[in-house]
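Hi W., the S-adenosyl-L-homocysteine complex you wanted:
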Amino acid sequence: MQPAPPNSLLGLTSQELTNLVLESGQPAYRAQQLFDALYRQRIDAIDQISTLPTDYRLRLGEMGWQVGLPKIAGKFVSSDGTARYLIEMADGETVETVWMPEGDGGESGDGSEAGDEIETSSAGTASWRRATICVSSQVGCAVNCRFCFTALLGVKRNLTAGEIIGQIAAILRDQRVQPPLQRVNLVFMGMGEPFLNYENFMKSVGLLVEGIGIPEARMTVSTAGIVPRIRDFGREAVRPKLAISLNASNDSLRTEVMPLNRKWNLGELMTAAREFPLRTRERLTFEYVLLEGVNDAAEHARELADLVRGIRAKVNLIALNPGAELPYCTPAQERVLEFQRILVGAGIATFIRRPRGRDIFAACGQLKRTIELPSAT
Ligand code: SAH
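Structure:
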């Protein structure tokens, strides 16, 4: 894997900024000015940092420092208001990041609670009550889930903390969102497996909370099931909510659709889930992508209920977002509803995730750096 350029200010903690300013003989308070400019004002060039003396701004540039805000190389807007951004890093690598606004009608449709992730209503781009940004953590992905488009890319490299934050900063700028960011939620559910880029991911969480000003309670990270990192994550003092991509109700099925299950099987994964230290009123989320004729039968719903029972959790069902490259089909709506009915009947809180931006290839599992729009979905 190639490292990203190291000269980006975005991604530095206040301690790292303090070291930087002290090394160049500046007073320590300059670090706070830099921190505010980078994360609160979200400037995109050093010469915009008006609180710094002009000669120090020049000096930072001469030393090779840049803000490091990634470039918006493409933007596709869906009929439902969702925008898929193609974000270009300094080395030319690109990832996708999705902006999902919700209107102010409050017609959430699936009973999910406030602060939740992608289960949203239709919305226009002009006004929104709440918005969710779906963030990428890696260029591509190494996990190889057989129903996911991102898997087709393989993994190119990890994103740095600055590049993870850069996606959010670039979109907040483009959408002209001003602080305080009370109406913005984040989901780490874009390209990549956040728990295979754990340190950069957690560093970005810290900076998002302290710098950008998004509380961790409004962030959710989804993992394909990297069990040792789930345990590490449970020990973090400041952490987003956790979602686990289950996608199958028994080991043989899960190994078929998620080969990663050979390494950490359902027994180990569910033990980690059961032992995960939830906070007051916090719930785990289990995601379950429904694949027609594969994992969508009544018996699978019952097996899933048995797996999840006793855990303070909810299940999010996602009907497959289809594509010609994938060996699976999307189940009919009645099938999805029947699956939900069985789970709800077994006492499991179960929601159906509404697809966002399928027409622009922005929905779950569809992120694969499509430069052109698909002709049909
Ligand atoms: N690597 C993490 C983060 C990606 S989140 C993880 O696996 O959890 C993406 C979510 O979309 C996951 O729950 C995944 O199971 C789901 N997904 C992947 N491909 C999909 C597809 N084609 N249709 C619907 N959901 C999909």
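The pocket of S-adenosyl-L-homocysteine is lined by residues 143, 145, 147-148, 189, 193, 222-224, 245, 247, 287, 289, 318, 320-321, 364-365 (CB under 6 Å).

W.
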